[in-house]
Amino acid sequence: MESAPLINYIRQYYSDRNNLQVNNLRNITSGWETEIISLDLNWQSNGESHDQGIIARIFPGKGATAKALAEFSKMKQLYNLGYPVPEVYLVEKDAGVIGNPFILMERIDGLLLDEKLGASEFEYKRWMEIFCRLFVNLHRLDWTSFATDSEKQSLSDTRGLVFSRLTRYKIALKEYQKKELTPIYEWLMKRVDGISSVTPSITHGDYHPFNILLDSSDKPYVIDWGASSIDDYRKDLAWTLLLSGTFGSMKLREDILKNYEKAAQKPVEQIEFFEVTAILRRLFDISTSLSLGADELGMRPDAIEMIKSRVDHIKGVRDRLEDLTGIIIPKIDLLVDELLR
Questions:
Q1: Which of 83, 258, 307, 311 could cross-link with 339 by S-S, CB 3.0 to 4.6 Å?
Q2: Which among 316, 319, 230, 308 has a CA at the least distance from the CA of 32?
Q3: Residue 57 β-bridge partners
Q4: In tens digits, what is the pLDDT along the chain, a chain of 341 residues?
Q5: Are 209 and 131 in contact (CB under 8 A)?
């Protein structure tokens, strides 16, 4: 991204700040989807110097404007409810300004939670509890404050949400010619009637230790809300368990589930079903982006190389599918073999 358009935009937006300087523009992108730019602002007011660190979160690909608007709205609501997220300042939906829609938000300077988990056994246990308690607290927020009156009735039955999601996958598998993933869909459909309904939750959609920042006083902030929705909390938890078990280890997966249940003070029922839905989502996204390009799924152009570089993760997802269902997808095996060469 060219830096000049973003710097000029910020200077115009904050035109009331005297002698505004925009410094240290850095690309700190680490994920597959959005581009993250860090900037330092400095200005004068009443004879005093002021500093502020901000983040520009830039949305590429299909549906970028809708994604930017949705994420801004959700983060603003979460912030107003007191849930620990960075404060969002503005959303620019006009892609012509810098090339893509973007959000400007508060920058949290500090460590990733992942660094704390790896510090010592004591720190691991402490921060694992905090990590899971934050997750449970999110799922217990009043979901109705995030829904319109017309949405509340359709969202109140989480079994209906599960059916709707599977129907969308059936359509997508046909549209994107991903017939090889149909056995996963069929496995889920054979079991969906037995899935219980639960109270809907605000879900994050990509909750893991790399999406939690700690400031200088160790206060946690949850970031990256692009996949947030109102849904069954088990879908959210299952995605976290899949990522932790395939990017990390099965021990990490088991520790997260155990600590989540401890924080929630109840067991999580039928989580394996939702893990299989997470596997379908992951394999569909990987397969589609590799065959049709990152833009098709709203990812950054260089996300393809990032996906290819994480072949161990793809292999882990494949192995987890076989462990849970016995299903083997020959095309996924070929993909893994090809990437390992």
A1: 311
A2: 308
A3: 36, 103
A4: 578 899 999 999 999 999 999 999 999 876 667 899 999 999 998 889 999 999 999 998 788 999 999 999 999 999 999 999 999 999 999 988 999 999 999 999 999 999 999 889 999 999 999 999 999 999 999 999 899 888 888 888 899 999 999 999 999 999 999 999 999 999 999 999 999 999 999 999 999 999 999 999 999 999 999 899 999 999 999 999 999 999 999 999 999 999 999 999 999 999 999 999 999 999 999 998 888 765 655 655 666 677 777 889 999 999 999 999 999 999 999 988 888 87
A5: yes
Structural domain containing residue 311: 111-340
Question: Which CATH number is 137's domain given?
Answer: 3.90.1200.10
| Tokens 């016995």, residue located | 326
- Same-domain check for residues 50 and 115: no
Looking at the DSSP assignment, which residues form a beta bridge with residue 25?
none
Q: Are strands 212-214 and 88-92 parallel, antiparallel or unpaired?
A: unpaired
Q: Distance between CA atoms of 310 and 335, rounded to whole angstroms?
A: 12
Residues 11 and 128 in one domain: no
For the domain that residue 26 is a member of, what is the CATH number? 3.30.200.20
- Distance from C-alpha of 34 to C-alpha of 224, rounded to nearest angstrom: 9
Closest of 153, 253, 264, 132 to residue 200, by C-alpha? 153
